[in-house]
Specification:
The structure holds two protein chains of two kinds.
Chain A (H helix, E strand, L loop, with lengths): L4 E3 L2 E4 L5 E6 L6 E7 L5 E8 L2 E4 L8 E5 L5 E5 L8 E8 L9 E2 L3 E5 L1
Parallel strand pairs in A: 2-11
Antiparallel strand pairs in A: 1-3, 3-8, 4-5, 4-9, 5-6, 7-8, 9-10, 9-11
Chain B lengths: L8 E5 L4 E6 L8 E7 L6 E6 L4 E2 L4 E4 L5 E6 L8 E9 L5 E4 L3 E6 L1
Parallel strand pairs in B: 1-10
Antiparallel strand pairs in B: 2-7, 3-4, 3-8, 5-6, 6-7, 8-9, 8-10
Chain lengths: 115, 111
Amino acid sequence: GAGVSQSPSNKVTEKGKDVELRCDPISGHTALYWYRQSLGQGLEFLIYFQGNSAPDKSGLPSDRFSAERTGGSVSTLTIQRTQQEDSAVYLCASSLVGTSGYEQYFGPGTRLTVT
Amino acid sequence: DAKTTQPNSMESNEEEPVHLPCNHSTISGTDYIHWYRQLPSQGPEYVIHGLTSNVNNRMASLAIAEDRKSSTLILHRATLRDAAVYYCILASTSGTYKYIFGTGTRLKVLA
């Protein structure tokens, strides 16, 4: 079956512009996660959705970052007034349910470059 | 936040077993231990996870210390395709949800 998909695969934007990153989880997966990975670094947890609710938003780096999920499916990560330090690969993952006993399936990521 | 400590890099010869260690001395009773790996230019891939008992699947085995303060991922016969960064993660849904990735171990497999 289809895996997690993300769009766009690459995004180049100018500093100060807003960007939207999209994630389509695996059908039937109730939990969805966003991470980012800077060049040569490990993954940084950003936010987790169970259904349409985000129990924990503390991983978002600043108030320029926001995320929403609608219909228990697609999620959008929005970065306002982008800065060069926002350049990274943004990864989305989903799992059947949002408890720690279930594995996460990752998408291929969106590479964001802020010039 | 509970954290894990892994060696930065390891090497193994092809067809030999590999033991990848992970320390997690601050683990709590509700934390699962997950392992993922990331091949170049790809998203992470699930390998295995466990809570208290040792676990086996088609990819690997997970040995968890009795006090749960450390664990070891075992690849029984390394292949060139196993060259990747391996992440040991504590997955907690106790209180504030966190899924903390460390810097991982870069495994190099020698032909």
